[in-house]
Amino acid sequence: xxxxxxxxxxxxxxxxxxxxxxxxxxxxxxxxxxxxxxxxxxxxxxxxxxxxxxxxxxxxxxxxxxxxxxxxxxxxxxxxxxxxxxxxxxxxxxxxxxxxxxxxxxxxxxxxxxxxxxxxxxxxxxxxxxxxxxxxxxxxxxxxxxxxxxxxxxxxxxxxxxxxxxxxxxxxxxxxxxxxxxxxxxxxxxxxxxxxxxxxxxxxxxxxxxxxxxxxxxxxxxxxxxxxxxxxxxxxxxxxxxxxxxxxxxxxxxxxxxxxxxxxxxxxxxxxxxxxxxxxxxxxxxxxxxxxxxxxxxxxxxxxxxxxxxxxxxxxxxxxxxxxxxxxxxxxxxxxxxxxxxxxxxxxxxxxxxxxxxxxxxxxxxxxxxxxxxxxxxxxxxxxxxxxxxxxxxxxxxxxxxxxxxxxxxxxxxxxxxxxxxxxxxxxxxxxxxxxxxxxxxxxxxxxxxxxxxxxxxxxxxxxxxxxxxxxxxxxxxxxxxxxxxxxxxxxxxxxxxxxxxxxxxxxx
Length: 509
Prior knowledge:
The chain has 509 residues and is an alpha/beta fold. The chain has helices at 11-15, 18-29, 69-74, 94-97, 115-120, 125-131, 135-145, 157-166, 187-194, 196-210, 224-240, 270-277, 306-318, 320-324, 357-364, 398-403, 422-436, 442-460, 463-483, 487-491, 493-502; strands at 3-6, 33-36, 50-54, 57-61, 86-89, 173-178, 214-219, 255-260, 301-305, 327-328, 331-332, 334-341, 347-352, 374-379, 386-387, 412-417.
């Protein structure tokens, strides 16, 4: 019998040679090995990570290059033999063993497009339970779970679903925001590439809950691997009867359509995304009306992020109360955190809310890759605050981060060491807004451009003139924060003002 050898087909692994490694092992092993292209375990510094199935469980090796394969085979790779790249049993690796994997429980275990393996690993349990419940009962479970939108806003998902359920009209939609554009974020991509059926079943459950029979995925065009996997997954799910005219023989219809974005960051905002889905220019809509009342093509629409919907099948399978047992305060469940930037062990960590930033960066991330002291950490993407080292004991919690002057966003953490120039980072935040603004509102469109100019004047000035320009920048940030139409302009002041507050010396160099 052939030994199963797992080599990720995740985009991060492929970018560092996973395809070549898989081919080299297949050539060297011949019929002695069956190569399974699984999802990434999230230990990105070890990619390509190779796992071998043994009688004692899976054994990991990494990072493996194609040039390592001959030596690994000679050392008994297919038997889990000793080698300098041998890491030991995969599940015992500290980075994985300390996590609480709920959303990512299957990622890395199987071929993402193996529908039978998905079913064998309990992937359909939540959908079967949802089909046995009334729509209101499904919503009640999501409300009980305390699940909040993982896309950044943190709005309770169950409340949003209930609003759509109670909205009138014969046609409703589920729209998935897969336009993952924040710097240092990749959890959506890893789910779409590593467990796509999870997202699809989450969409079906949402449709059952609110009375929608159609779901649309808005995928960023920069994710070609995710597009390939999702396209195949939708076809296979339809062939299995998991989506289509008769979901699992229930008589319920739910179709799924995949659409590509066109590279606009602002289309991560829900109403701009809906405009783009409708074939229009991706600009922000006035609210009200909310998408829950008038969303896609004017119909009541559930708009959720990938991570939000990916949490739903587990909630239905195990109950909302079981999900709510994880986390702290109003931040329930687990969050897939993405560690990036100047960090030794970058990757994905799924843990319950309540862990500190310090524990994530030092215990999981291993500190900075450069070995130099941490100077700043940005949480929540390019619109998130820059936090100084004295705030690293802040808990990963919506309310705790807000109290510390930051935001959680999509759970991305970007680390900087003491060589960073925070005046340049503040300028980058303003410039990013100027480039990515949809242009609909003046505070964002004009304010960001003027903000870049003012920061340049602050850095070039001294004495009283620097103070005058700094006061002008603060006033401009207040205008943007209070008067912008959406979070693009409203949150851009956050990284700028945090840089001024905590790293003011960088503006006076």
